[in-house]
Structure formats: C-alpha cells, structure tokens
C-alpha cells in the first residue's frame, strides 16, 4: 500500500480519492450497475460515477435506503442519472429477478461493479442453504455477472467500447481456510470461523475475476475483468464487531482510508484510460498488486468456477 501518499506507477496513492482519480474523465453515455450502492464504498462509487456523467443502476437490498441514497446524491448532483432496483445477493432467486428486470429495461451495460458484501458475521445459511458469506460475497455476484454477460457483450460490440467488470476482493483473502476454498465443507458449522469464511469469500472474488477474464480473452470479447483490494476502511461491514468498529473510528484519520479514498480504485478501474485492455489483474491503491499464491492459482480458479455452477444448479433443483 502506498501508505503515506507515495504514488505508484499510475500516479495515484492510498490517499487519492475517487474524484481525484477520475478528474477530467467524461462518462456520458455509459451505463453502470453498482451493487451495495446505498452506503459506504458503493454509495461513494455511485456518486462519483454519476458526477462523471455515468447512468448508474443502484442495486440494493433495502430499496428505501436506496432511494434515500439516491436523493442524497441528487442533492449535490441534480443532473445525476440514477435508478434504484432491489437485489439481495444472498438469494439466487433475487439475483435472477434483478437480472431479468434489468434486461427487460433495454438499457445497455458498460460497467458492472460487484461491490456489496458482508463481513465476518456469525454462522448462518442463505435461503439456498449455502454459507452466508460465500453466498452473498461470491455466489450471488457470480450468478449476477453470468446473467448480465450477454448484455455486456452486446453493449461492447454495439458501442465499440470496452466493457469493464470490477470485483471487490480484499487483502483478507490471505486469512482464508487452509487449502483456500472448503469445497467439501462449505456449510460445516463446527469448523466455521467468521474471519476465515470472509477470507474464503474474498479469495473466491479474486479467483472469479481471473477465470472470467481468461474465458473472455479466450473468446475475444472486449470486456476486461479485474479485482481489487479497496484498502482498510471503516464501513458498516464491521457492524458485527462493535469494539473493533469503535477503535477503527477513533484512529481512522491516522491509519485507515475514508470512503472517498476507499472508492478510488473501483472508480479508477471502471473509468480510467490507463487500464484499457488490462484484464485478469489485481489492484490496490489504483496500482497493480499481487494476491497470494492461492489468488493466482488458475487450477483453483477453474475448480471454483465449476463448483459455483454446481451450487447454482443444485439451488434450482
């Protein structure tokens, strides 16, 4: 991390904000979906994309909170083009409904930002009987991306502009369970540890980006896919850890990023011309970064892809 404002090759650092990294970029004519757009990084990402002229569909679990967020953005940007649509990523049925409704609007899709997530929550299963963090952080986004891919391909072809898929991973992927992904013990409550389950889901995000990028490159599709670590940020992800959250808020000015800085890499990957044609990579502080060895394991990525497809199939039967 470019901790003290030191800049990387991109010219940006950990202290760069989303507005700063998109200065001078015109996103007029582009359409984006941002998941988890009603608060935290998703809200700031949405605001800055709208500021640059992008039409943004705010995919949110709580529609009332989504409309409040929309109003807050439009108070500062009256010309913002924002739509609110319901999406509960922990429910595969909700993901399918969202994708169907979006496709029915006839809107193009240039940018997909898989931002939403939950962190280190107590053990529970989703309505599809899948460990909740894996279901929400990875599997819901995996299905969403697959369902929207044809729309993105058509948009990229018709506009002759590169589509961009941005997937939020985390440095926390290094804290996953031994072996990376517990394919045979995904729902094992007895061996569950909240932070390891979070790390597992974030490793899955990174591997998803790599395998999808490989597949799209192989097919000659003009869509890039990259993952990122947004940095250490105080958001409501820490709501299950009140003591940690309190300490984090106390020291945020000195050690952690704020939302404006935390959203920078997402906005950079979504809009900046520096990353045109760059795909299958991992970023931090708007600069290239390296995940751990598991995050670069293409055999593991392929196995995860097939495993994810099998979970989705099982949920429908």
TrEMBL record:
InterPro entries noted in UniProt: NAD(P)-bd_dom_sf, SDR_fam, TIC32
SUPFAM superfamilies cross-referenced by the UniProt entry: NAD(P)-binding Rossmann-fold domains (SSF51735)
Pfam families documented for this protein: adh_short
Record protein name field: Short-chain dehydrogenase TIC 32, chloroplastic
């Amino acid at each position: 991390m470019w901790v003290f404002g030191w800049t990387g090759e991109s010219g940006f650092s950990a202290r760069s904000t989303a507005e700063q990294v998109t200065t001078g970029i015109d996103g007029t004519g582009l359409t984006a979906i941002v998941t988890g757009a009603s608060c935290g990084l998703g809200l700031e990402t949405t605001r800055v994309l709208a500021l640059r002229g992008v039409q943004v569909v705010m995919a949110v679990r709580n529609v009332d909170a989504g409309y409040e967020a929309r109003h807050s953005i439009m108070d500062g940007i009256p010309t913002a083009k924002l739509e609110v649509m319901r999406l509960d990523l922990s429910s595969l049925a909700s993901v399918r409904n969202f994708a169907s409704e979006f496709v029915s609007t006839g809107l193009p899709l240039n940018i997909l930002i898989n931002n939403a997530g939950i962190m280190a929550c107590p053990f529970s299963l989703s309505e599809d009987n899948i460990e909740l963090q894996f279901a929400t952080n990875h599997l819901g986004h995996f299905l969403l991306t697959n369902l929207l891919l044809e729309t993105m391909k058509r948009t990229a072809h018709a506009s002759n502009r590169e589509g961009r898929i941005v997937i939020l991973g985390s440095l926390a992927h290094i804290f996953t369970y031994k072996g990376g992904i517990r394919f045979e013990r995904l729902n094992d409550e007895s061996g569950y540890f909240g932070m390891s389950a979070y790390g597992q889901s974030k490793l899955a995000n990174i591997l998803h980006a790599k395998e999808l990028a490989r597949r799209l490159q192989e097919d000659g599709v003009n869509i890039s896919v990259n993952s990122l670590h947004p940095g250490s940020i105080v958001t409501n992800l820490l709501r299950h850890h009140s003591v940690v959250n309190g300490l984090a808020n106390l020291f945020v000015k000195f050690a952690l990023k704020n939302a404006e800085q935390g959203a920078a890499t997402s906005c950079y990957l979504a809009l900046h011309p520096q990353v045109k044609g760059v795909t299958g990579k991992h970023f931090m502080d708007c600069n290239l970064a390296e995940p751990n060895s598991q995050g670069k394991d293409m055999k593991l990525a392929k196995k995860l892809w097939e495993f994810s497809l099998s979970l989705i199939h099982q949920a429908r039967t």
